[in-house]
Amino acid sequence: MAGPRIPNLFAVPELKEKLLFTLLCLAIYRGGAHIATPGVDVQVLADFVRNQGAGTFFGMYDMFVGGGLSRATVLALGIMPYISASIMFQLGGAVFPHIDKLQKEEDGRKKITQWTRYLTVVLASFSAYGFAIFAEQQGAVPEPGFGFRMTSVLTLTTGAMFIMWLGERITERGIGNGMSLMIFFSIMQGFLPGSALTLQFLDTGVMSIQALIILIAVMLFVVAGVIAVTVGARRIPIQIPRKVMGRGRIREGQKTFIPIRINSAGVMPIIFAQAIIVVPGTIAMFSNLPALRAMSEMFQPGSSVYYVTYAFLIIFFTYFYTSIIFNPLDIAENLKKQGGFVPGVKPGAATADYIDEVLTRVTLPGSLFLTTIALLPFFVFNTFGVPFRFGGTALLIVVGVALDTWIQVQQHLHLRHYDDFMKQGRVKFRGRRGRFM
């Protein structure tokens, strides 16, 4: 079935309302991302990011908030405090049985959502205070002190809570996941200026037209690979036998499958790996010890130690995060309760072992793919001298969010076409019945 055409997007009233509401919320988000926090010299922070902040935690965080941190905006913290709180509860479910029990109940999930909001306030407050201290250390605050720090905490925490509320409204009344769309547009904001600078390099002769063509071909190949791996999955066949429902009713047997995605962990392994590998550089930035400076140079992009460590961390966190979000024991128990089974495999523990074996095998190419996507931009962009780096993390987020949003748009259009078809069918049936009466 062919996908929907762009002009049809606004032909459905419900979809049109959702799209316009989503665009309005995103416009408000990007507008607020240009309002500066009181008492901060924005130019000083911008110079810091340009000179030495790209390889630190500051530079990585700034990418996810669309440059809001380097511009010291009221929305500088972005959606990251809420995402961090959500990840903490998600990981907590694998450690604390009480949280795991709540995640499986509807009322429990509502309670965890409320706890996540409270934790977001706490994380945003600490992050805002840390940002205020950092801005003072960089000389970006003309009048430092307690008053500036409290103003920053109040302003940035309020901005983080507003973004959380805005993202929830997009998810509830708009199209797509609000949190993911905010990160998507934040990342895409840096793509257009980088593309313009690339064309400027082409005009001045710094980059040749052949290098630009090769670069575009490599990026298209990588995007196609990301799409293929994102939607790719290994299907485990499931057989559900016939069942007597009572009063002579029999439920027919069904054949279905369990999809094991090649990249079940998504972009989280790269985010975790980046958060750890930028720690030496971030620590050395605030220290004058020669040993820390030397260690920081070892973990800078371009060194073999950096690439090997980065690859190892991505592979490790891919298996670690997949084991948390995918529990073969729960799947085997649910299948056993429903009477389903994997053909040729005994129900219960044997099924769990079989699913775990398949998951382990599928995760290996997924982890190697994530490693390739994360490291390829370093070699490609350094070779061609591109003035911006559209890295692996950003690429996976952009492609993944775009695919999920487009799938939701298709679902709305198909549902609309199905409703129209059913209405037309009822009208025709009534017309024929009227002729025979």
Name the helix and strand elements from N-terminus to C-terminus, one letter apiece.
HHHHHHHHHHEEEEHHHHHHH
Number of discrete helical segments: 17
User: Beta-strand percentage?
Assistant: 5-15%
Q: What is the number of strand segments?
A: 4
**Spatial separation of the terminal alpha carbons:** 39 Å
Mean pLDDT: 77
User: Biggest sheet, in brief?
Assistant: 2 strands, antiparallel
The CATH homologous superfamily of the largest domain is called SecY subunit domain
**What is the correct CATH architecture of the largest domain?**
Orthogonal Bundle
CATH topology of the largest domain: Preprotein translocase SecY subunit
Brief account:
The protein has helices spanning 13-32, 42-53, 57-64, 80-95, 97-103, 106-137, 146-173, 178-189, 191-204, 209-231, 268-277, 279-285, 290-298, 304-325, 328-338, 349-384, 392-436; strands at 233-240, 243-246, 249-251, 254-261. It is mainly alpha-helical.
